[in-house]
UniProtKB/TrEMBL annotation:
The keyword Transferase applies. One of its GO terms (molecular function) is glycerone kinase activity. The keyword Kinase applies. This is Dihydroxyacetone kinase, L subunit. Residues 63-267 form the DhaL domain. Keywords: Kinase, Transferase. It comes from Actinomyces massiliensis F0489. One of its GO terms (cellular component) is cytosol.
Amino acid sequence: MADIALTEIGAPNRRVGARGATMEMRIDEHRLTLTGTGWPLTGAVRHRMMERTVTHEKPLDAAWSVAWIRGAAAAVAEHREELTELDRAIGDGDHGINLDRGMHAAVAKLDSQESAGGASSPPATVFKATATSLLATVGGAAGPLLGTAFLRASRACDVDVLSSQDVATLLGEAAVGVQMRGRAEVGDKTMLDAWQPAARAAREAAATGASPVEVLRAAANAAVDGADATYSLTALRGRASYLGARSVGHHDPGARSTALILQAAVRAAGGEEEPERVPALAGRI
């Protein structure tokens, strides 16, 4: 392994050299841009190291919570057909359609609240409005499960700005809500296979002193991994369980939509610009 020398080259800049290669980190206000040449790295890794831009992390406050739900609605709309196809393979074939309707209803409700009240609502109010919209408009299992997740989250974050521990607690409560409402366990090939790893990753990240956005990012990446892992699982809950061994070889649509929703939370906080990996199903943040 090559030795790496780190040298200060001016107040906001630093240069790292390894075997004649350089990487310059330019800090401009709230943006950190990495550029460089000559790195003996593979193409994908080199691209990330040299071109990734890290944006300023925003506080997890009222504005963030609204941006999260708006971003989640946009992500679900973008992946509506994918989610529907996943559900068509092992379920009723309506997950993308139903969740798209529910998320748009949540956004409409938030718009109505903002118009009526003027000031932004705190995160707890935003999550409760999202929960009631999902419960009222999303059919099948997804509405009750996600609605319960957001409802329990709303009760766990009675603060104006979320700390790292608040994020971990919020996601932990959401996961408990999904587990209790669905009577599922990890490995049953349900959305809990994304929610519970996310909650665990958030708890572990918060314990190490990670920032709130870093905690969110850890949770979102764990949700992506959990959703990916459902491909090889046999469904033991829901309509997919009727297929038995034939459910193997398909991703769970609820786990996939959970990953999309949590990724939207990271993006809303300014914690992501480009995914670190983008396989066919999903990408880490």
